[in-house]
Amino acid sequence: MSRKRRIFDVDLPEDPAEVPEEVETKSARRGPMASAIGEVGDARRYREKMEADIRAENDALAHELVRLKKLGLVTDLVPLDAVRTTKLTRDRRISDRLDLADLKTSLREIGLSNPIRVEADGAGGYELVQGLRRLTAYRELLAETEDDCWAQIPAGILAAGQSDAGLYRRMVDENLIRKDVSFAEMAQLARAYAADHVDGCTSVDDAVNALFASVAPQKRSYIRRFALVMAGLEKVLDHPSAMSRSVGLALADRLEADATFVGTVSDALRVKPERDAATELAILRQVVEGHAAPLPTKKRGAPKGRSGRVALSVPVGPGVRATATQGKMELRAEVDFGAVDRTRLEKAIEAFWREIEADT
Fold it and tell me: pLDDT of 186-239, one tens digit each?
């Protein structure tokens, strides 16, 4: 049997026509399984991108939190019993009355406007850096009222691991700004700082320079003199923070001149064992005024006339002016001192000091 002849033939074009852009051909060729797999892949890639974005944001937040902690700008409510005051020697005597009546009244009425500063110890507790009076006031209010609202205190939390020297500076600088820390308290802090060899410090002089770098040199000199007083009389003074500057400096001069003067002061104070701050200060002043021991010889130059600002006439050339004040000598002239040879300037300064100390 012969094959049956085809009724018609299909003629295919050699070059297929271009498919219009608006015609979607991909979906037409994909089956249900391929579409499902594509959707799962798209979802996985989207989820991975979201996770990467979240991790990047969390890393940025973590770094920002660490930065703010180092600056003490992270504030939280801290339980009172979690705050200790043992790491740093305080520049206030906790045993002294801190005059908290006004502070407690303010806390009751408007709350705490300035948080304390603490350092996390890494074990769930905190060491106090700044705010002894505020912390003590909160503890007293909790004891007086038994109200749990006083059981926690707002605190700026410093990151753990800061140097002791930096923490001491934070504590000292805050109280220097408030101007309510006595010379005796500052001297005691310097002595403790040196005794603990903080940051390699071995002497009271170095401790004063490190702790009180932001105060005037004259004030640092006073603190050193009070450190001498506290070294000799620490055990017999009940109210050292009440000691005035003039009495403290006079005591330092007499202690430096006569080592037995410690016994004289101690005997005078033991006469009145139950004494308040005013009585102790009066006893110290009386002992100082009645003690005739010679004062130590000091290199202080020529005897001073009147204190204050003194303008001097310097007959060395036109336009030369000089002004002398306490701890300062200022020369003004139409000379570019920066252009003068350094060796010549040094020799001139040496000659100046030789003349100043000629009569000492």
Answer: 898 888 888 888 878 888 888 888 888 777 888 889 999 999 999 999 889 988
The answer to whether residues 228 and 169 touch, using CB atoms and an 8 Å cutoff, is: no
Encode 290-299: b = buried (16+ Cβ within 10 Å), e = exposed: ebeeeeeeee
Q: Does residue 92 contact residue 181 with C-beta atoms inside 8 Å?
A: yes
CATH 3.90.1530.10 at 52-180, yes or no: yes
Residue spans of the domains in the chain: they are: 52-180, 182-297
- Nearest-5° angle of CA 242, CA 144, CA 124? 85
Cβ burial of 165 (10 Å; 0-12, 13-18, 19+) is: middle
The predicted pLDDT at position 9 comes to 54
Q: What is the CA 35 to chain-centroid distance, rounded?
A: 64
The three-point CA angle 124-126-132 to 5° equals 155
* pLDDT at site 82: 92
CA–CA separation, 73 vs 66, rounded Å? 10
Edge-to-edge, what's the strand order for the sheet holding 83-84?
75-79, 152-158, 116-120, 126-130, 83-84
Q: Looking up tokens 């006004």, which residue turns up?
A: 102
Evaluate if residue 293 carries a pLDDT over 50: no
